[in-house]
């Protein structure tokens, strides 16, 4: 029993990079899913297309849209693979999720919404508080992610 | 005027029949193949036959009958037809493993000959994921961003050719990424994933492009609806494709785990 536990621990350290990346990809996919399901479909705050969108915005949106479901499905299979190899490390995986989720939200909030003007968070309201909450939340996620990843790297 | 309309109706029906005819032949051939294969080998899986039937139903729905007729005047109906013919039918038909069945149904000597043909360099070239993606998604860009879309509805020959192309390119695209049938020139999962990601991206961008810049003679409202059908409907089928691709990776890498466990 002891030996098995020790063996498990060895595996998860061996796969620590993979645990992190699996989490990052999954976090990325989760945020994209929340964005699509809640802000596009349920609240109808975000618009499918905004007339002020630059062409580069369309390319970026297409790429990130496609990548979001690649990341979700791919990271789920990677997660299954980690379990199969007895190399799963919950804390490190969660760290990856926070980092991936925060990074994508920050990219979406700053680059896609503001520079590429893909669409805004909400229309016909004062947008500043929405932007602040969105991006500060993203920064908090990134910090939590980095702390967790740093703690599991020693 | 009335007789002219009746004439166009008749003519359009003939166009539909020409498009559906190859599907009827292939539909029946599969069942002959199943009977032949079952005589000598173990039972051909029922679920593969089911995929074959569903795939053909999807293709035929888009080529003949009310949806095909509505597609001429309604862009949303056109998009639903496009999803059925170019994406869903090819995926279902690829999952029914027709080439495997064909090789099982014919005598061994002939099967060897056929598999030699399947290995030739032309097929290798067109079933490369990059080429298949260009033929498939590139063809769609050509169709929706040039006057070709308009010409297609005025010229029956063009209409037939484009519809065959949409199906064949869709099938080629599907089998370039997921390997159900014997595939002589297999490419790595990473390479296929990256190319698929780019192809899916190009499809998403095209949907939004159509939303922003409707094809000629399509109203803004219809283009917006059609574009959203293309975007979200395409997602569903692409998700299935990505899932199968990664599932195949998961199954393929299983052996290395066992190998490590033994050591």
Give the SSE layout.
The complex is a heterodimer of chains A (154) and B (263).
Chain A: H1 2-14, H2 16-42, H3 55-84, H4 90-115, H5 127-151
Chain B: H1 2-40, H2 46-63, H3 66-70, H4 75-95, H5 98-105, H6 108-118, H7 121-126, H8 129-145, H9 148-154, H10 156-177, H11 189-212, H12 220-252, H13 254-262
Helix pairs in contact in B: 1-2, 1-5, 1-10, 2-4, 4-10, 4-12, 8-10, 8-11, 9-10, 11-12
Which keywords apply here?
heterodimer; A: mainly alpha; B: 263 residues; mainly alpha; 13 helices
Characterization of the model:
The complex is a heterodimer of chains A (154) and B (263). Chain A has 154 residues and is mainly alpha-helical. The two termini of chain A are 25 Å apart. In chain A, helix 2 (16-42) packs across helix 3 (55-84), helix 2 crosses helix 4 (90-115) and helix 4 (90-115) runs antiparallel to helix 5. Chain A is elongated. Chain A is built from five helices and no strands. Chain B has one domain (2-250). Chain B is globular and about 55 Å long. Chain A binds chain B through residues 48-49, 51, 53, 58-59, 61-63, 65-67, 69-70, 73-74, 77, 80-81, 84-85, and chain B through 193, 196-197, 200-205, 208-209, 211-212, 224, 228, 231, 235, 238-239, 242-243, 246-247, 249-250, 253-254, 257, 260.
Domains of chain A (count): 1
The H-and-E topology of chain A, N to C, reads as HHHHH
Helix amount of chain B: over 70%
| Percentage of residues in strands of chain B | under 5%
* Radius of gyration from the alpha-carbon trace of chain A, in angstroms: 18 Å
């Amino acid at each position: 029993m002891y030996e098995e536990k020790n063996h498990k621990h060895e595996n998860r350290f061996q796969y620590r990079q993979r645990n992190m990346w699996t989490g990052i990809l999954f976090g990325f996919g989760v945020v994209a899913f929340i964005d699509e399901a809640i802000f596009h479909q349920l609240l109808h705050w975000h618009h499918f297309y905004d007339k002020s969108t630059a062409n580069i915005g369309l390319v970026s949106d297409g790429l990130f849209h496609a990548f979001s479901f690649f990341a979700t499905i791919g990271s789920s299979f990677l997660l299954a693979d980690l379990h199969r190899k007895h190399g799963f490390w919950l804390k490190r995986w969660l760290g990856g999720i926070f980092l991936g989720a925060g990074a994508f939200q920050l990219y979406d909030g700053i680059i896609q919404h503001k520079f590429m003007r893909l669409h805004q968070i909400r229309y016909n309201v004062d947008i500043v508080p929405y932007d602040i909450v969105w991006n500060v939340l993203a920064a908090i996620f990134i910090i939590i992610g980095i702390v967790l990843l740093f703690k599991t790297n020693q | 005027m009335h007789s002219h309309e009746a004439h166009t109706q008749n003519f359009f029906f003939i166009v539909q029949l020409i498009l559906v005819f190859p599907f009827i032949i292939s539909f029946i051939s599969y069942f002959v193949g199943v009977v032949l294969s079952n005589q000598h080998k173990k039972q051909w899986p029922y679920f593969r036959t089911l995929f074959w039937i569903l795939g053909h139903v999807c293709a035929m729905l888009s080529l003949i009958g009310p949806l095909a007729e509505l597609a001429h005047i309604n862009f949303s109906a056109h998009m639903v037809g496009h999803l059925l013919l170019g994406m869903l039918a090819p995926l279902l038909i690829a999952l029914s493993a027709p080439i495997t069945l064909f090789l099982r149904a014919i005598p061994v000597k002939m099967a060897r000959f056929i598999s030699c043909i399947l290995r030739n360099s032309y097929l290798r070239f067109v079933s490369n994921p990059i080429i298949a993606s260009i033929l498939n998604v590139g063809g769609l860009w050509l169709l929706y961003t040039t006057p070709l879309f308009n010409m297609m509805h005025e010229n029956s020959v063009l209409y037939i050719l484009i519809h065959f192309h949409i199906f064949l390119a869709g099938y080629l695209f599907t089998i370039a990424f997921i390997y159900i049938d014997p595939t002589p020139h297999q490419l790595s999962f990473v390479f296929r994933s990256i190319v698929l990601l780019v192809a899916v991206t190009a499809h998403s961008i095209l949907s939004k492009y159509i939303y922003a810049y409707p094809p000629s003679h399509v109203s803004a409202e219809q283009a917006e609806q059609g574009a959203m059908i293309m975007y979200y409907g395409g997602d569903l089928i692409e998700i299935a494709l990505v899932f199968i691709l990664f599932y195949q990776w998961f199954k393929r890498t299983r052996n290395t785990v066992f190998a490590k466990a033994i050591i």
